Amino acid sequence: MSRRGRRTLWAAVIVLGLLASSVAAAAVVRVPYYSFSPGVLHDASGVVRIDGTEVHPIDGTISFTTVSIRGRLTLLRYIADSLNPDAEVVAERAVLGDRDREENRQLNFQLMDMSTQTATYVALTTLGYEVGRTGSGAIVVAVEEGEAADGIVNPGDTIVAVDGQPISIVDDLVATVSDQPPGTRVVLSINPLGTAEIDEREIVLGARDDDPTRGFLGVRPQTRDLGYEFPIDIEFATGNVGGPSAGLAFTLTLLDLLTEGSLTGGLDVAATGTIDADGNVGPIGGLEFKSIVARRAGYDVFFVPASTSEADLEAAHRRAGDSLLIVEVATLDDALDALVELGGDPLPVPRT
User: Fold this and answer.
1) What's the structural domain count of the chain?
2) Are residues 309 and 215 in the same domain?
3) Residue 185: its pLDDT value, please?
4) Going by DSSP bridges, is the β-strand pair 199-204/185-191 parallel, antiparallel, or unpaired?
């Protein structure tokens, strides 16, 4: 080989070595980004155990959907997911806010626990059972952009008092704030996530959209340390799944298990959405990816929150294609009515 040929060969070896080193580094170097992609479906009846009353098998399936979350990403994964049409890359701070990863993990487990408890409460009271509620404050799940609490209250904060009046459950917070007219200056006593401290934060109340004479914070709260006195024993084994978005699916599952007949009419039903104590279905994240999950699994119907943004609803319908029927629901009653229209049995008359 000539001297020039050897030089060319060595140059190629060096370039390939540098490329190999760059790829190896990209496979291990972490960047402050997370990615979201389609997760899996979980048969909700498979995680529920009921003792103390008769249980009826479900004809069909009621499942909750999940989103796969990766973070922090390697540089190589960041590049791959950025190019993947079935994934979304998001800055770490947009996911965690002021929390660290462990705090965020614990928050999501706490939200799942509250979701199962609320679903049990709603299902049992819908069937006519008497259930009492206790709590240690109103934990903030989300803050609405541009509303009174924006920039003052953070997700994970727990409101324990308003102007010195103790807040035990969400109903206390709603009643106390709604009794004040918009423009009222109030002091919130807040326990930040992961601390034992109590911060006093002053806030000027906004107005409710549905009643401009009543005060409004602009937060989505759930009761912290929610406790119930249930007349029957119901437990959930949700494993490592966190977050509040399975509330609607759990509620429908319990109603089907605790009553005769077939709530689903034999259909395979997926559902996502939070549930509050009044049976309202709240918005969740990752709806587009959850639609992909339900479609790929061959499900018949997918219940989604009607309060989801128009853009997210359009994306969900696009991902569902022609094989998956998406039904937008604002309340538990909306979902029950839709199931009857699809061939399911109506709920029996509530207990007295």
Assistant:
1) 2
2) no
3) 97
4) antiparallel
Which residues does 158 contact at the CB level (< 8 Å), separation at least 6?
136, 137, 138, 139, 140, 190, 191, 192, 193, 224
pLDDT of 246: 96
> Are 218 and 317 in a shared domain?
no
| Residue 28: per-residue pLDDT | 61
CA distances from 206 to 171, 183, 257 (A): 18, 6, 42
Asked if residue 263 and residue 206 are part of one domain, the reply reads: no
Phi then psi dihedrals of residue 115, to 5 deg: -65, -45
Contact 262, 59 (CB under 8 A): yes
**Cβ count near 77 (within 10 Å):** 21
Domain hosting 313: range is: 38-130+234-341
Within this chain, do residues 120 and 187 fall inside the same structural domain, yes or no?
A: no
Per-residue pLDDT at 21: 47
Cβ-contact 319, 295 below 8 angstroms: yes
End-of-domain residue from the set 196, 223, 250: 223
Looking at residue 98, what is its pLDDT? 82
Sign of CA dihedral 53, 56, 62, 63: positive
Q: What is the CATH number of the domain that holds 76?
A: 3.30.230
Extract the residue ranges of the chain whose pLDDT is less than 70: 1-28, 349-352
Residue among 259, 280, 279 nearest 350 (CA): 259
Q: What is the pLDDT of residue 252?
A: 98
* 121 in a structural domain: yes
